[in-house]
Write a structure and sequence with these properties.
By secondary structure, this protein is an alpha/beta fold. The protein has 2 domains: 220 residues, Aldehyde Dehydrogenase, Chain A, domain 1 (3-Layer(aba) Sandwich); 199 residues, Aldehyde Dehydrogenase, Chain A, domain 2 (3-Layer(aba) Sandwich), CATH 3.40.309. It is 40% helix and 17% strand. It is built from 16 helices and 15 strands.
């Protein structure tokens, strides 16, 4: 079937604009009722599990029960954060500055989404749009097209039930999901909220439409000699790395361990279900060839291993691992970069591990790995030394540092951390992004600032400039 994608997308955008024009008149109470209804409907256990199972079947990636938990955590967390927040009309009046602030919608938002989180991302982004009185058009990865449509249809049924315009949320039809449709969407909407790989995000930024896009992950985690309970550390790493078969870009892709505790840490990881492939083992070469078939010519990851279980990846590589293995660790004590692919992103329960003689060398290794891949995203550390966390915050080119927590279960927000719950994690200019925080509903608002006269606050030069500076001139 031949599709004129320009006309097809233009029709979606026109419907979105008409729906948004109606939503523009909604009160705060009306908006809050709709977001609550949508959040509740999406997290009914049977509904969440249906979407989770649907995506696993459609994409052949991930774990249904984990995806169900992801929907619970992200949708409920997103709603909990926006509950009670002002997104309509006058949201702040500052008597001291004389500034009143009004919240206004952006219009029609184009949401570009990855397959790895194709269950929670359309739900969260739709909630963000409804909260801010925007319309949204959901553009999925081809391997999530049917799940995406099912989620959109569920949201639309809720909107209809509450007599709201259903076209506030639309999905690209499964038969029309394509690169061309995505490109047209990015050209025609008012704003782009893009989550996915670096090429797609850069395309969003170069489309000419205002955009928030987020960068590639390649998380590096450090376990130092002061980590007090290695069994607990191992459990956190194994839970994080195996959750949804490591479909998240926030999993521990590289783990650096201080040399003096390396042996004990390996033992703790084995108890937690991690199999270790030693440096120089024939199994390392077999696994490398399975994961990056054309290495070192390029670092294109084998799509057949993405978000697969550790046992399945081992089977594909003809590598023996113990029964019940949750993750595979591969020693990579050489250099960094394309000739050492285990230092890069893996999108699977496989982690590169290496020793460091001390904290300074570990910090250097982190910098080198991030320089290769993952700059801007995040790192983690298990330590009892707060000064080491401070040092990392001062020198590492990342936007998030997770301390003594499971990385992938923390980065995008959780009930036990203060990060905003989000499916769009900004990586700052280090990751070629426009934001360095987790995007929330507040990022989908325009603000109008009204100024009124206040008493003159101009200071004298003596008050404004120090004596030292004045005397220097």
């Amino acid at each position: 079937m031949s599709v004129n994608y320009e006309e097809y997308v233009a029709d979606l955008v026109a419907k979105g604009r008409a729906a948004q024009a109606r939503a523009n008149g909604f009160s705060q109470e009306r908006v809050d009722e709709l977001t609550e209804a949508v959040a509740y409907a999406l997290t009914v256990p049977e509904t969440a599990l249906k979407f989770a199972e649907m995506l696993v079947a459609e994409s052949n990636m991930g774990v249904a029960k984990d995806k169900q938990l992801k929907i619970y955590g992200k949708v409920k967390g997103c709603f909990a954060q926006m509950r009670g927040g002002k997104s309509v009309g006058l949201i702040d009046s500052n008597k001291e500055t004389g500034i009143d602030t009004y919240a206004r919608p952006m219009g029609v938002v184009g949401a570009i989404m990855p397959v790895t989180n194709g269950e929670a991302t359309p739900a969260v982004k739709s909630l963000m749009a409804i909260k801010t009185r925007n319309a949204i058009i959901l553009a999925p990865h081809p391997k999530a097209r049917n799940t995406n449509l099912a989620i959109a249809e569920t949201i639309r049924s809720v909107l209809k039930k509450f007599d709201a315009p259903v076209d506030l949320v639309q999905a690209i039809d499964p038969d029309c999901v394509s690169v061309e449709a995505g490109q047209q969407l990015m050209r025609q909407v008012d704003f782009i909220l893009a989550t996915g790989g670096t090429p797609m995000v850069r395309q969003a930024y170069s489309s000419g439409t205002p955009a928030i896009g987020v960068g590639t992950g390649n998380v590096v985690c450090l376990v130092d000699e002061t980590a007090e309970d290695l069994d607990r550390v191992a459990d956190m790493i194994a839970r994080s790395k195996s959750f949804d078969n490591a479909s998240s870009c926030s999993t521990e892709n590289n783990i650096i361990v201080i040399e003096s505790i390396y042996g004990k840490w390996v033992e703790a990881m084995a108890k937690a279900g991690a199999a270790l492939i030693r440096e120089g083992s024939p199994d390392k070469a077999k696994l490398l060839r399975t994961m990056w078939p054309e290495s070192p010519a390029n670092h294109d990851l084998n799509k057949n291993i993405v978000a697969q279980s550790a046992s399945e990846i081992a089977r594909l590589a003809d590598v023996d691992v113990p029964a019940g293995t949750r993750m595979i660790m591969v020693e990579e004590n050489g250099g960094y970069g394309n000739e050492f692919p285990f230092t890069g992103e893996k999108l699977s329960p496989v982690a590169g591990v290496r020793k460091a003689k001390d904290f300074d060398y570990a910090l250097y290794s982190m910098l080198m790995i991030l320089e290769y891949q993952g700059k801007g995203h995040s790192v983690g550390i298990h330590t009892a030394k707060e000064e080491r966390v401070t040092k990392m915050g001062e020198v590492l080119p990342v936007c998030k540092i997770v301390v003594n927590q499971p990385q992938s279960l923390t980065n995008s927000g959780s009930w036990t951390c203060g990060y905003p719950v989000s499916m769009t994690l900004g990586c700052g200019t280090w990751g070629h992004n426009s934001i360095s925080h987790n995007a929330t509903w507040k990022d989908l608002l325009n603000f109008v600032y009204v100024s009124r006269e206040i008493p003159n606050w101009q200071p004298s030069d003596d008050e404004l400039f120090s004596e030292k500076i004045r005397q220097a001139f």
